[in-house]
Write a structure and sequence with these properties.
By secondary structure, the protein is an alpha/beta fold. It has 2 domains: 2-280, no CATH class; 288-474, no CATH class. Helices cover 30% and strands 23% of the residues. The chain has 14 helices and 19 strands. It has helices at residues 22-27, 34-40, 46-57, 77-93, 122-134, 152-157, 172-189, 215-226, 260-276, 288-298, 322-329, 343-352, 428-432, 452-455, and strands at 2-9, 29-32, 60-68, 99-104, 140-144, 160-163, 193-199, 231-237, 251-257, 303-307, 335-341, 357-362, 374-384, 387-389, 399-401, 405-410, 413-418, 442-445, 461-465. Helix 5 (122-134) links the parallel strand 4 (99-104) and strand 5. The structure holds zinc ion. The site of zinc ion has 4 residues, from loops.
């Protein structure tokens, strides 16, 4: 049995100022053939799980191409076309195959949506192109992010879509194993997947951490449906709200064995269950300074403040300064900010050298929407090329880099400056610079929830906060939705 694998994964904000180019992909992953297998074998990643599935079930996995960039603006059309062409060529070169296992995000945008080159549903486009290439009989399965904007075209073109059901997304390898297991049940047991989509007229709010209520209840409800006769698998997508596209919004997609009506009935049932509870998934995020007052009154330390607006994992520039300013003005001791993207400040630190004290402006250089640069007189504690290995559970075992980095300190406030825009999934990178977040009393992260994977187990308290950024939801104007969505619209 021969199965091709590969992927295109990008979360594209139509609101960010961070542009996407070829380097955005090569900085993270643009891997061909065996490179892909060597990079991901044994890691908690989608491709890592496909490799595990192939080895367990004994099928041959033929790697094509994997293109993945950190979240940022739409991918230019010529880059997208080149990636898809390479993938289709490599699928054709693979010859006779028995299945396709893909890693897709589900929230990609390509080109200028105002112009003729724009694609508002690239994953639908990719799946349709692969379907055309392999024909109607070859099973196409894809793993999606939990933050997908799932379209009817995607559901039509694929046999099976399986979304991650954890957030922080620690089940990437597990969901890929599920894809491989389901593929075997199609090829060996003759299962005939029928998939149905229910698009919920809703954006999911801040309550989507799957380990905790109320989100835990939604996942339990999903599992209850997955346990029903003839249901093969099902998923909930909480959506990616920073894309102004017609399919933006939460959804449920359910796969049954050869019963389209049943799949639709379960998708509608769960979609309605979620929409009926729409207020439950939303909550307010205070400013860091407001949350700090609450944290001091509660007295549970270390306390983590998570700025959801400047989350680089959502495509934000990562250089907003609201949180840092609050820490400095409050005169905090044992406080750190993870991380601020500022290559210019890092270059100044490199010139000054380790142990030097210098005056520099930190952050907010990408756009005034990210706040004002903060004038600091700081000591350079450490410098690094940024290389590290994720400690997990998220992306466990994966080698990565934050690019040239610096650890600076002014009084009690410690700041890690980085070049790559990646959120802290665990403490591994900080420790390469000699900063142990566990020894801090106040920790600021630019992340919505993924940081929880490596921080929550030892945190005293966590506060999701909101600082001014290009992604402040109340400042965004949507023009292409073509339908009403809660809570943008009062429905
Ligand atoms: Zn996600």
């Amino acid at each position: 049995m021969r199965v091709v694998t590969g992927g295109v994964s990008h979360e594209s904000s139509t609101f960010t100022t961070v542009a996407t180019d070829w380097q955005s992909y090569t900085d993270w992953f643009y891997l061909r053939g065996e490179e892909m297998l060597n990079k991901f074998r044994g890691t908690n990643t989608p491709i890592g799980g496909f490799i595990d599935g192939a080895e367990t079930h004994g099928f041959e996995l033929i790697p094509t191409v994997l293109a993945e960039a950190h979240p940022s603006g739409p991918t230019p059309r010529d880059i997208f076309d080149a990636i898809l062409e390479e993938m289709l060529n490599r699928i054709a070169e693979a010859g006779s195959i028995d299945g396709v296992l893909l890693e897709l995000h589900g929230s990609m945008v390509v080109g200028d949506l105002e112009g003729p080159d724009g694609i508002d549903d690239p994953e639908g486009h990719i799946l349709a192109a692969i379907r055309q290439a392999v024909g109607p009989e070859i099973p196409i399965l894809a793993q999606l992010d939990i933050h997908s904007n799932v379209s009817p075209q995607m559901v039509d073109a694929a046999d099976i879509l399986i979304g991650r059901e954890t957030y922080p997304e620690i089940d990437m390898a597990e969901r890929s194993r599920e894809c491989a297991d389901v593929l075997m049940s199609i090829v060996n047991d003759g299962k005939r997947p029928t998939m149905a989509l229910h698009q919920i007229p809703m954006i999911w709010g801040i309550h989507q951490v799957t380990a905790h209520p109320p989100m835990r209840e939604a996942i339990d409800e999903l599992h209850r449906i997955e346990a029903q006769p003839r249901v093969i698998c099902g998923s909930i997508a909480t959506c990616y709200y920073l894309a102004d596209v017609p399919n933006m919004g939460a959804s449920v997609y359910i796969v049954t064995d050869n019963d389209q009506a049943l799949a639709q009935a379960y998708a509608d049932q769960l979609g309605t269950w979620i929409f009926d509870r729409r207020e439950m998934w939303h909550g307010a995020a205070p400013t860091t300074c407001e949350a700090l007052k609450i944290a001091e009154a509660d007295g549970k330390f270390p306390v983590i403040f998570a700025d959801r607006n400047d989350n680089t994992g959502g495509g934000s520039p990562g250089d907003s300064t609201g949180m840092l300013q609050c820490f400095i003005e409050a005169g905090l001791q044992n406080a750190c900010v993870l991380y601020i993207v500022d290559p210019e400040a890092i270059a100044q630190c490199q010139r000054a050298g380790m142990g030097a004290t210098l005056t520099l402006d930190v952050g907010a250089k990408s756009t005034p929407a990210q706040g004002q640069p903060i004038r600091m007189t700081a000591e350079v504690i450490a410098l690094s090329d940024g290389d590290f290995r994720y400690g997990g559970p998220m992306l466990a075992g994966l080698n990565s880099t934050m690019g040239p980095s610096a650890y600076i300190k002014q009084d009690g406030v410690h700041v890690l400056l980085v070049t790559q825009r990646e959120q802290p999934f665990d403490t591994a990178f900080s420790r390469t610079l000699g900063l142990e977040p566990r020894q801090m009393r106040y920790i600021g992260v630019k992340s919505s929830a993924h940081f929880r994977a490596g921080f929550e187990s030892w945190a005293g308290a966590i506060h999701v906060v909101s600082e001014p950024s290009v992604h402040t939801l109340s400042d965004l104007t949507f023009k292409r939705l073509g339908r009403k969505l809660y809570p943008l619209d009062n429905i």
